[in-house]
């Protein structure tokens, strides 16, 4: 944190954030639809570790910039006031997977 800058307020997040792991181009991609966050690595374990790092950076940066509540609301999160104030992530449910044929003419 920059010296002299006010320390960001604490925020309570409750719930599970669903992370989808995919293999693409010999990399493991970790994607969390509830936050629109993505990272990748060579192994599943490394992708998990990197995702945890990205998640921490996301919360630190949005708190510091004062945009966390706005970003969470845009991503479909709900602010709950009882028994204490906290944020709840949207429910993510896998619906389908399809291959869609595309043709691009340049």
Blueprint (SSEs and pairs):
Blueprint: E1 20-24, E2 27-32, E3 37-41, H1 44-65, H2 68-74, E4 78-80, E5 86-88
Antiparallel strand pairs: 1-2, 2-3, 4-5
Account of the 3D structure:
- The protein is 27% helix and 21% strand.
- With 106 residues, the protein is α+β, with helices and mostly antiparallel strands.
- The longest helix is centred in the middle third of the chain and has 22 residues, at 44-65.
- The chain has helices at 44-65, 68-74; strands at residues 20-24, 27-32, 37-41, 78-80, 86-88.
- The radius of gyration is 17 Å and the shape is globular.
- It has a domain at 20-88.
Provide the descriptors you would attach to this structure in a database record:
alpha+beta, 3-stranded antiparallel beta sheet
Q: How would you sum up this structure in a few lines?
A:
With about 110 residues, the protein is of the alpha+beta class. It has helices spanning about 45-65, 70-75; strands at about 20-25, 25-30, 35-40, 80, 85-90. The chain has a domain at about 20-90.
> What number is the mean pLDDT?
88
Dominant shape? globular
Instruction: Tell me the strand order in the biggest sheet.
Output: 1-2-3
Largest sheet: 3 strands, antiparallel
Evaluate the radius of gyration. 17 Å
Strand content: 15-25%
Helix percentage range:
25-40%
């Amino acid at each position: 944190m920059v010296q002299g800058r006010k320390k960001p307020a604490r925020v309570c997040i409750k719930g599970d954030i669903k992370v989808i792991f995919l293999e693409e181009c010999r990399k493991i991609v970790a994607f969390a639809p509830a936050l629109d966050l993505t990272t990748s690595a060579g192994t599943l374990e490394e992708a998990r570790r990197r995702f945890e790092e990205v998640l921490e950076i996301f919360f630190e940066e949005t708190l510091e910039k004062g945009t966390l509540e706005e970003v969470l609301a845009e991503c479909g999160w709900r602010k709950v006031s009882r028994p204490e104030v906290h944020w709840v992530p949207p429910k993510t449910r896998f619906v389908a997977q399809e291959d869609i044929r595309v043709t691009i003419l340049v």
